[in-house]
Amino acid sequence: MAGPPSAAQRRVVDAADPVTGRVRGTPAQLAALLRRGLVFRHPRPPHDHFLTPAGHRLRESADAPGAPAPEPAKDGSAGGVFAARVGGEEPLPEGAAAARLREVRGAWQGLLELRRMTRADGAVDRPCDWERSHLVRAAALALEAAGHTPAGPGGGAGYRVRATPQPEAVAVYEEDPAALAACAATLAGAGWQAGEHTEPRTRARYLLASPRRA
What pLDDT score was predicted for residue 69? Predict the structure, then answer.
């Protein structure tokens, strides 16, 4: 790869869909990104272009230490880009629930399409590599798309998805035992393994969830 991508090429990468990695640009920009190994052309019609793992790393380098951070949007997304609600965000603005529901459903369908495209057998029953590298966001999207409600900034009812020291596991908290069990069922249906555990000090129940491999 000769030199860094141009500013125009970088804008194409930065504007990629945050879930599917689909990119749009001029034929010349896409051809240049193909040569650099930052995108690949899907073999099936309509032959759209998607970020490779290297392209995803370049796109996410904006989040690296020292890089300018985007201004958080009120709905918990970064700079207006869709982001699953992990619990703890401010409530949605009045009248925004319907638009948010459409965004979540679209993101979930995009994620299923990403699963289909990145598997030789086209299966969508197990998490893909993007989900394994974005565990908290992926688990939260599965929960939000299924209709679960995230907790507010002060805690209380609703789910909270948090990272854990384990390399491929997240913790899901929910104060209501029935709601916690429902979260486990949702994650299992989305291709995750989820088991209930108890924190030794607080005795709080939570799920330890990880993407299923087979």
Answer: 34
- Eight-state DSSP code of residue 90: P
Determine which helix (DSSP H) or strand (DSSP E) holds 205, and give its type and residue range: strand 205-211
Q: What is the rounded CA–CA span in Å between residue 81 and residue 178?
A: 32
pTM of the prediction? 0.67
Tens digit of pLDDT for each residue in 189-205?
A: 999 999 999 998 888 99
Domain ranges of the chain: 1-68, 70-214
CA–CA gap between residue 66 and residue 82 (Å, rounded) = 23
Q: List Cβ<8 Å contacts ≥24 apart for 183-186.
A: 183/143, 183/148, 183/159, 183/207, 184/209, 186/142, 186/143, 186/146, 186/148
At residue 64, does pLDDT exceed 80? no
